[in-house]
Each structure stands twice: as structure tokens, then as C-alpha cells.
Amino acid sequence: MLPARGWISIGLAAAIAAIATLLRLQRRRHARLTFTTAASTAPHPAPVPPPLAHADAIGRRHLGLIDNNQPAHPTVPAPIGVDSNDTEVSLFRLPGSGLALDGEGAVPAARAVLAAVLTTGAADTASVRPVVVTTAALLAQLLPAGHPVVGLDPDGTAYDGERLIVLADTDAAVTYAEEEMTSRRRLLDTFDTTTIADLHARNDHAETPPPYVLLIEPATRHAGRVQAIATHRSALDLHPIVLGPHDNLPSIEITRDGTTRSDRPHPLHRVSTLSAEDLAAVLAMLTDAQARPEPGIDIDDPADTTPAAPTVEPCPVPLEDPSALVHLRVLGPVTVTTAAGPVTTGMRSGSYTVLAVLATHPAGRTLHQLTADLHPDVNPASAVKRVRTDITTARRVLRTATGHDEPMFIVFDPATGRYHLDPQTVTVDLWHMLTAINHATISDNDDETLAALRRATDLYAGDFAEGRDHAWAVDYATSYRHQILTAYARIAEILEPDHPDRAVAALERATDLDPVNEELYQRIMRIHGRQQRPDAVRRTLRLLEERLADLADAEPSQATRRVAERQLPPAVSRAGRTS
């Protein structure tokens, strides 16, 4: 994985994918529902920098992420490499008193260790989100030249506080770790227990010290102090890591590709390695993903109505009464129907997925693009064979199901080298939905607009390719979900003057599709406020609070709280602030 820039284990890829999932949810929280642009088959921009996109794809598949409304929870904390059986190895479960990294690959390995530790528990409670203490000089060595040497919370606003503590030098870092060691020992004495793990197992207190990692360079004059900390590694959940040789810690020599050598038996067979640029990208993702007080966007503030238009493929305009032989549904579970009924036998899982990919690319995909989408972790030659087999199977099954031997259904264009769905024989629910939305955007008649939007929302039977864990699909699903949210928002705008309760019902249906988009709740509270329903305003805000609490302890933005406050009578509003 990341062959040109390093190698990372499946566990670290999964941790990166978990952060990406959290960022996608955060973006959905703040997405504006502006009904001004044409519908599009294009995906939402991924929150992962291009160099890490492959890791995100592999990690997401490993996590089996199907529910796009929940953060991901990797099972291995701080996955820093694999053993000889390719089983993930956690830094926190290594034997011995710590770890010293040496050799040509030590610096890339230290980058991966830092990434593995800080991505651990990002979507869990604060008690399992580790803290790393290091020095400015060492962090500068790990990051690209000239990159700011700061922690994850440089402005001091994150609810969890700083998890990457950068100190002036090794003496300061070791002193900090010694103070933490003393504090933890006193805590254990207070509760008459012997290990931090035992403390976490109890439920009669609120003390939850997280794993603590000391990452420093070797310094002879501090060796004794580091060894004293290492002695308490297991009991106090303190993990010293030295970038360089250290006589009193288990030491491994790391080659350029991450393979390890050691004079003594060691569980690590290969460790993950990262480039400086990739570590910087991971740290940036972590900074963006942290829960913190946010200004948010007030629905009454003007939205940007002139966003940069993405380059999109033209979407085929299906006939109102399509005569196509095959009806492909990709909104919700992928299904295929002919005049004889649903196609239930003979179709490979991969064939359904190829059809779904091509539905999102009406202009087609090359064989290379299809293999990259569907089989990012498979040998390219094997991936090509799989895709060819899936295309051949789809054609054969569709010919049998329709009773027509001539159509190709999936057409190859030699001029472009692309495969695409034949719009004369295949119609797609996604295309119908987008066509309806486009009709609504250009109509100046509210009745026509409302009818078109209802056609669109009726067609939306669920997330794109629901139930399939291919990483390529998630950003397409986000795009189509967002477009249908804007449709519901516009429906509510049209209905509210004469039918406010129906407008609220439309918006509540939208919150079922995306429970974290704050503008939906702002719109609902505003309607309740206009109808003099303060209790309904408060219920709506509480519902949002509950749903965001599952999003790494996030809270409604300041803008959303202001919208709620404006809907309450002054006396009620003051009481709410006082309480």
C-alpha cells in the first residue's frame, strides 16, 4: 500500500478511513441546502488528500462501512505493523518496556507510529484517545521542511484539549512524562488499584486517563529517567518510544521497506512507514476532525449562490415512459428489473457493482478506471479479469432476462476506450431523479416545481448502492443524498405558507436521510417558531444534540443555537440561557 511513498498495514489504513468517515460526517453537518445549481452525477469531493485516497479505500473496505451515518471504530488500537502471520500489532500491546526504532527506515516508521497513535479512538470517547508528547525538533524531522511544528489544537478550542503536545526539548518532554507518571500513580493509590486498565474497568468514578506516548530522540543523560518511565509502561499505560538506539528498551532495526530486524525475538515483522507529506496530511485530517465549538452557518445568512461549477458528465435524459428493456435501480440496494420481473439469479455481485459504477458515469469508464474503482487492493491483471468477467456475465444475464439476444447493454466505445450503459436499452433511477431535479431548477411555476421535486424524492429509495462497502461509492452517495436534501428543503419552502405542518414533515423526512445536517434542523425550528411552538423548537434542538453526540462528541454550532433562540419568546430565551 502506498508503494511509492511507503507501506502501511491494513490496520493503519482502517484508522485513516475512520478519520475520513468522521470528516465526511462533519462536512455533511455544515452543507448548505441551496437549490440553485443543476443536478449532477459527480461525487462530492473526498476529504482525503489524493496520496491517502488508496489507504482510505482499502481501510474502508476492511472496516466494512455500510452505515454512512455513523463514525467508524477500528478494532486494533495504535496499529503500527504486522507480525509474521500478517496479524496487526498494536503499540499498546507490545511486550517489554517500550520501543527503540533504528535503521534506515526508522524515521518513516516513526511517522507511521505517530499517525497510528493519534488516529486511535478518534470516533470514541476521550478516554481511549491517546496523547503524544514529543519535541519540536523531532516533529520537524518527521514533517516536510518548513511545515508548522504545532499540535492538533493550536488555537486551544478542541473539547478534548491538545493530544499532540510539542515541547521545547527532550528534557522538557521527559519531565512532562515524569509528572504524568506521578499523577497516574497517585490516581491508582486513591482508588486502591494497581493498573490503569483496572481503573478503566471500574464504573464508580469518572477518571479515565488515556494511553500516553512519549516520542523522543536518544539522549544519554536522560537514559535513566526514560528507563524509570519505561518500568511503569504496562501499569500506567505510558509508552516510551525512542527514535534511535537505546540500550534499555527493546530495539528493532527497520529497513527502507519497513521490514524489521532484531537480535531478540520481537512480534513486529514489518512496520508501517509514511512519507513526511503523508504524515502532514494525516495530522491535518485529525485537526479538522476534532470536536470543538463551531460558529456554523446561520440559515438566515446569505448562501454563496455562485459556487465553482464542477466539471460534470452530461446525464442522459430518460423518456417519461421509457421503453428500455432493463430498469436499473441504484438508489438503495442495486437491483435490475425487466418486463418479466426482478433479475434474481445468475448475476454476479461484481456485475451489479459494475452497473452501479457506470450509472454514475453516463459517458463511461475505461477498464483501468473500473479496476481502480472496484479492486484497488487486487493485482491489476487479476482485477482486469474480474471486471471483464463481470461485464460478460451482466450482458449474458440481461439477454436471457429480456429475451433479446442482440443488445449489448454495456457498450464499448473504441474511440474513447470506455464502457458505458446503453441509454436505449437501460434506464436508471438515478438519471430520472436528476432529470426531475433539473426540471425543478428551471421551472418558474411552483406547482410544476413541486411536482418535479416529488418525483425526485419518490425515486430516492435509499443511499446510492446501499449495502455495498466499496469505498468509491461513498462520495457519490454523499452527493446524491445532498441533492435530495436540497429537494426536500425546496419542497418545504413552497409548502410552508399554506401548509406549515407538511413543510415540517418534509424536512423531518430529510433528517431521517441525513441525521447530522444542521440546516435541516434550523429550517424546522424556524417554521415552529413562526407557528409559536417553543416546545417543538426545544425538542428539535435536543434531537440534534442527541444525534451529534454520537459524532465524536460534537455539539450544535453557535449558529444553530442562535436560530433556536430567535424562535423562543424573550422570557423563555432568557430562562434557557440561565439554565
From TrEMBL:
Region (Disordered): 555-579
Segments traversing the membrane: 6-25
Any one biological process term the GO annotation gives: regulation of DNA-templated transcription
Domain of life of the native organism: Bacteria
Gene Ontology MF terms in the entry: DNA binding
Keywords (A to Z) from UniProt: Membrane, Transcription, Transcription regulation, Transmembrane, Transmembrane helix
Domain Bacterial transcriptional activator residues, every copy: 428-568
Pfam families per record: BTAD
Name assigned to this protein: Transcriptional activator domain-containing protein
